[in-house]
Design brief:
Elements lengths: L1 E3 L4 E5 L4 E5 L1 H11 L4 H12 L3 H17 L30 E4 L3 H5 L30
Antiparallel strand pairs: 1-2, 2-3, 3-4
Length: 142
Amino acid sequence: MVEAFPDETIAVHLGTGRYFSIDPIGAEMLDLLASGCAVEAVATHLTARYDADAAVVEDAVMDFAGRLLDEGLILPAPGSATGVVVPAPVRSSVTFSAPTLSVYSDMEDLLLLDPIHDVDETGWPVRAESADPDPAGPRHAA
């Protein structure tokens, strides 16, 4: 789950209960990666957008993508080519800096209490310990 605000983006991993604060450049990277853009294409895009040193941007993108992957916020795209076209960069007056991903685990237990975690593969509202979709239990004919 991701929600963007003017100065940061908040992501919540509902499977782990961890939540993340991402700065605007990191949020831009996350958006491009989540849309299916290849890491190399993201680096090229951001190099042009921020008129930054290509090696610095490439290192930052690789590091950030690795952290997002490690945290389970993105998954590798199947195959080597995604086919997603990276949008033309709009020049920014902001100086490029490596993105930040702040990780918070203080609410893991609370976020994992959500009953959505207690369902089986059939989904809500069937609880994992009950194969009977009727919460009143099985009915018997008289």
